[in-house]
Design a protein that fits this description.
about 100 residues, 5 helices, about 55% helix, Glutamate receptor 3.6, receptor
């Protein structure tokens, strides 16, 4: 029986940087973190079907860890790299913790 992990959903106001680290760990546990490399960078021994399956698993895992407001921003993305990149562009620099970190520099 596999382990089940719960992380707080990202709702746009919590710490995106920390959520991202936790989400990457979830993708590792679900054996689909390779999808974040993009199809072209995945191992060459993966079939097209395996690459699609990894992408879909990663998109679904991320989708289930997003609050409704944030999900609306990326719901049309079917490619995990596009979804991840859009989340980073929307929320990485807006994170309060990230802003505080930058102020301390």
């Amino acid at each position: 029986m596999g382990s089940k992990f719960h992380i707080e959903k990202f709702i746009g106001s919590n710490d995106f940087g920390l959520w991202k680290v936790k989400m990457r760990a979830v993708l590792v546990q679900n054996k689909c973190v390779e999808a974040l490399k993009g199809e072209a960078q995945m191992p060459t021994n993966f079939s097209a079907e395996e690459k699609t399956e990894l992408n879909d698993k990663a998109v679904n895992a991320i989708t289930l860890c997003l609050g409704d407001k944030v999900l609306r921003e990326v719901a049309k993305e079917t490619n995990v790299v596009a979804m991840w990149t859009k989340l980073e562009s929307l929320y990485m620099t807006k994170s309060v913790a990230h802003k505080q970190f930058l102020k301390r520099k």
